[in-house]
Amino acid sequence: MRLSGKHIVLGLTGSIAAYKAAYLLRGLVKEGAEVQVVMTPSAKEFITPVTMSALSGKPVASEFFSANDGSWYSHVDMGQWADLVLIAPATASTIGKMAHGICDNLLLTTYMSAKCPVMVAPAMDLDMFSHPANQANLDILHSYGNLIIEPGDGELASGLHGKGRMQEPEIILEEVVRFFDQKKKLLNKHFLVTAGPTHEKIDPVRFIGNYSSGKMGYAIANELAACGAKVTIVSGPVHIKITNPEITIIPVESASEMYEHCLRIFPETDGAVMCAAVADFTPEKYSATKFKRGKYGLLIQLKPTTDIAAELGQLKSENQIVVGFALETNDELQNAYSKLSKKNLDFIVLNSMNDDGAGFGVNTNKITIIDRDNNPTFFELKSKAEVAKDIVARVVSEIGKKQEKRH
Ligand code: C5P
């Protein structure tokens, strides 16, 4: 019984895949989970509450009030009770409402009240799934720290073929088990993650910056938290919203502010993942008034910033790890390894500007991890969320090695 003692809210929405939720529910209960089913009004058109309540051994929650005795289903209580909210199947409509805070049924209010992680298994036709509106909504859910169970590719209820069918119940069940298992991997650990660009002020209206979106760093923070760690992100200016009680965000603007916070936080942590694209140079002087257009060019003298990763690499204790990134355009492996040595890192994640789909702004990345013995491990082009899993798996194994050494 791999889920005994776990409290799961299983949310059903109005999709033909709702019948598969009965198998999923059976699987969850067989593994020992206590499951409270919440159905949207349209889910009841596809499968009856009687089936779900018989399988879960509990009345199904669907309306805010019981029609019989007026008793109130508290979405707040359910949200607090749950160790996991699992919405399977999730229609495009429910995904859209979740992304935008529309709470017109009990499942959506429960979602918004939940303090625990949320997993979403989309189920819809291929064109609906790939529609930019749905993809943008899934990106929003992802930025909230919700875990998306990618739909399968295959035959759809419409008779069409493509990506959109809800993942099979056995696969969702394994994802749930994996989710609870991996929570133990970095339990009681605390990590510092730097993310995003820095802005180095020139005058009150101008700065030197770069194209970093922060997506990679935030994906790593999410994955560390999914493995049970507490995470502090020291983040340059980005457009990412994140709600995860295990993740604290310290917003900063410049490299020197980022350095100050990292220096303060690092001693309390088990390690740091330095994902930020920190400016290497900052203006020597800041002009308190705006530079005016003139006949001549403007010369701005720059001075180097502190290399935060290198500083933490020097400061780290035997029990701590520091992970760096290298974004290279040439002699990639060589340059990355020399950074690892110079900064005293435990491993370095290389991405090359020469690889399509890798680097700034995009949702995908292609990495190579290089260790202290200069052994490279090459990875395929993947979504940043998947890349984060590969990086965090290496963090888990490095932390494990440190622990072994101590014993
Ligand atoms: O030397 P380079 O800037 O290419 O090294 C990249 C790595 O060093 C990244 O991990 C980045 O987050 C980190 N870095 C830093 N502080 C700087 C510059 C880079 O932490 N000032």
Could you walk me through the main structural features you see in this protein, from its secondary elements to its overall organization?
This protein is of the alpha/beta class. The chain has 13 helices and 21 strands. It has helices at residues 18-30, 49-56, 75-81, 92-100, 106-113, 126-130, 132-143, 169-182, 215-226, 255-265, 308-315, 332-343, 384-406; strands spanning 7-12, 34-39, 84-90, 118-122, 147-148, 152-155, 161-165, 190-195, 200-203, 206-208, 230-235, 247-251, 271-274, 281-283, 302-304, 321-328, 347-352, 364-365, 367-371, 376-378, 382-383. It has an eight-stranded mixed sheet with strand order 12-11-8-13-16-17-19-20, sandwiched between helices. It has a five-stranded parallel sheet with strand order 2-1-3-4-5, with helices on both faces. Helix 12 (332-343) links the parallel strand 16 and strand 17. Helix 1 (18-30) packs parallel to helix 2 (49-56) and helix 3 (75-81) crosses helix 5. The longest helix has 23 residues, at 384-406. The model has no long low-confidence stretch (mean pLDDT 93). It binds cytidine-5'-monophosphate. Cytidine-5'-monophosphate binds at residues 194, 255, 274-276, 278, 280, 305-309, 324-326, 339.
